[in-house]
Amino acid sequence: MTARELDAAGITDPSLRAAYTAGRRLNARHGKTYFLATRLLPVDRRAPVHALYGFARYADDIVDDLGTTASTAERRLALDALEQQWLRAVRGEETDEPVVRAAADTRARYGIPARHFTDFLASMRSDLWVEEYPTYADLRAYMHGSAAVIGLQMTAVLGTVVPRAEAEPYAAALGVAFQLTNFLRDVGEDLDRGRVYLPLDLLAAHGVDRELLLWSRRTGLRDARIDSALRTAAALTRDVYRTAEPGIGRLDPVSAPCVRTAFVLYRDILAAIEEDGYAVVHRRSVVGRRRRAAVALRGLAGALAARTAVRRSGRTAHAGNGAGGTHGGAAVATADEEVLTAGQGKDRT
Question: What confidence category does residue 38 fall into, taking pLDDT thresholds of 50, 70 and 90?
Answer without folding.
Answer: confident
